[in-house]
């Protein structure tokens, strides 16, 4: 059974930084797309950053480009999200997601596996 375990959320002031981690266990597929979605109260879940395990190609939402960096460790089947220059509008629950075909969809419904979520709160 695949499990995704996230860590690294918290509360910071605007301009601060956080690093999120997500590690998969029980994952036996040869490839993946893993990344981060976020959901703020009253809003839909949106893709923030995604990465393909084989190519290393990544996707970033326009709102985080230049501030967030996603990276991967294939040996550990883990992904990381370095978040810099955080803004209050980054406040949300951040969820790690994985898709075993290595296809980085922006649609959350395409992802088979999800973590429990980690809260990121940025104060002004």
Q: Which SSEs are present, and which pair or pack?
A:
Blueprint: E1 3-7, E2 10-13, E3 18-25, E4 33-39, E5 46-52, E6 58-60, E7 68-73, E8 78-83, E9 92-99, E10 113-114, E11 118-123
Parallel strand pairs: 2-11
Antiparallel strand pairs: 1-3, 3-8, 4-5, 4-9, 5-6, 7-8, 9-10, 9-11
Provide keyphrases for this structure.
single chain; mainly beta; seven-stranded mixed sheet; 0% helix; 50% strand; globular
How would a textbook summarize the main sheet? 7 strands, mixed
SSE sequence, one letter per element: EEEEEEEEEEE
Radius of gyration: 13 Å
The percent of residues in helical segments reads under 10%
- DSSP strand content: over 45%
Q: What distance separates the N and C termini?
A: 40 Å
The parts where pLDDT drops under 50 for at least 5 residues are none
Number of strands: 11
| Morphology call | globular
Structure description:
With 124 residues, the protein is mainly beta. 0% of the residues lie in helices and 50% in strands. It contains no helices and eleven strands. The strands form two sheets. Strands 2, 4, 5, 6, 9, 10 and 11 form a seven-stranded mixed beta sheet that branches. Strand 4 (33-39) and strand 5 form a beta hairpin. The chain is globular, with a radius of gyration of 13 Å. The mean pLDDT is 95.
């Amino acid at each position: 059974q695949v499990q995704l375990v996230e860590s690294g959320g918290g509360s910071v002031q605007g301009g601060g930084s956080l690093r999120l981690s997500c590690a998969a266990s029980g994952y036996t597929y040869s490839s993946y797309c893993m990344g981060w979605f976020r959901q703020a109260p009253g809003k839909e879940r949106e893709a923030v950053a995604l990465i393909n395990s084989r190519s290393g190609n990544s996707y970033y939402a326009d709102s985080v480009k230049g501030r967030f960096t996603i990276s991967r460790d294939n040996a550990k089947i883990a992904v990381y999200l370095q978040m810099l220059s955080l803004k209050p509008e980054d406040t949300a629950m951040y969820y790690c997601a994985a898709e075993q075909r290595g296809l980085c969809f922006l649609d959350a419904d395409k992802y088979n596996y999800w973590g429990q979520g980690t809260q990121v709160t940025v104060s002004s």
